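Morning F.,

Quick status update on the modeling queue. The single chain you submitted on Monday has been processed. Sequence for confirmation:
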Amino acid sequence: MSPTLILSLLAGLLAAPPQNNTISLYLSVEEGDRLIGGLTEENFRLYEDGRPVAFRLEAPESPMLVTLLVEHSRASWLYQNDIDAAVQAFLSAAPEGHWYSLVTFSHGNEVVKDFTRQIGELRAAYSELGPPLWQDIDTYDAVYETLEKLELLPGRRVLIFIGSGFDTLSARTLGDVQRKIESVNVTVFAAGAGSSLRGMYEPYLGPTARLDLTQAEAFLNMLARKSGGQAWFPKFETAYRDIARAVFLTLANQYKLVYQTSLPRDRKFHRLRVEAFQITDDKRRDYRVRVREGWRR
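Structure tokens below.
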């Protein structure tokens, strides 16, 4: 991490005392395939465990912190073209001015490039990657460790996962990762790799392999659903360009609701619900809200 970023993060941490009950909630509002902007506080309602909660609307932090977590394993060779296409698509679509980092994983994580505003540095670092050393794909460990590190940083944090979703030898379980994403304020977007191969070979797979495929997709969908992000499983490499554009367009149109939570620190999961709507001529028009499912405190 650059000295400038370290100083700015420390300054932010020291400038304001921690307010454990103050929560920033990030969300996007949609109607079909269209993002809805320009809404005000009067257009939202927020509920925790079914109870209405007062909030204020603020501009989301900028710059934001974006980490690309990329599968890099010897076992990935069948869909390596998918992974490469996805990485290049996200680096090409990434807007200037934000902080970006690149982390690869197989059996353990490797920070290939720590947070920088120079997207070209990430592109160069990825192009200089050597062949993967491990056959393992420890996806659960990789996601858990990355969430732990992002949890320590202030501001708006985004994790972009690029990989298959398969897991081989993780010490962490799916349940461990689910509890972590429920307690960490990080938005996850996932680009699933290998979907075209899945469609090609699925008719020939046995029950165990089919279960592995189903569990991999379910894991990435869970990360997105729990955090207010989104997961895709494209059939063609060219689709990653549209996915990357969609992710950064969504982030550019996010809303930030700030509120004081009354949730107890009981380690239980508490559900959130956000309504977004407009009233015209006494008729209410409801929109779809993409927001995390709730909090585990």
